[in-house]
Design goal:
By secondary structure, the protein is mainly α. It has one domain (17-156). It contains 6 helices and 2 strands. The protein has helices at residues 17-56, 60-86, 91-95, 110-117, 123-135, 145-150; strands spanning 98-102, 152-156. The chain has a two-stranded antiparallel sheet with strand order 1-2. The longest helix is centred in the first third of the chain and has 40 residues, at 17-56. It is elongated and about 100 Å long. The model is unreliable at 1-12 and 166-172 (pLDDT under 50).
Length: 180
Amino acid sequence: MTTSSNSGQQTSGQLDFSLWLIRLIAYIIDGIIIFVVTTILGIILAIALAVAAATTGNLLFYGGLWVTFGLFGLLSILYFIILDVVWGATIGKRLMGLQVQTVKGARVTFGQSFIRNISKINPLLVFLDWLIAIVTTGPDKRQKLTDRWAGTTVAQTGKSPISMNEPSPTPSPPPPTSPT
């Protein structure tokens, strides 16, 4: 994998697909967390709307399903923004050894986090954000499109539980000299 420094510059001119794969795994972990929370809140909402529909005779339940989909997008944005600002990474990124930072290596602000995470309101927008970034690489190959707009990047700051590169062989010590 290419290395990075605190200034946010990458030493290689090639796109680092292993970092993007690690980011995808982190995003999937975060998506599962958000899905579970949204499902629990959606069930509570559905029960409340079903009770209300039974007592009033209205079909509010079907509108509640659309509210649940909107809730997923809202929770996604809030989850990513708050954790990026407070911790510097989401739970998924932390597990994968990643950190969100400015291109100069500083902590991200609320505004920067909002800009870099706005695409997370819809999975299709996330896909387009990543696809455009991969096809039209900028000076920092780790940036998705909204990272470029926000002046942020995701850096590998810890060890990922999955190794994307071959381990480098450790050199063996020279054989002992024999007395002649």
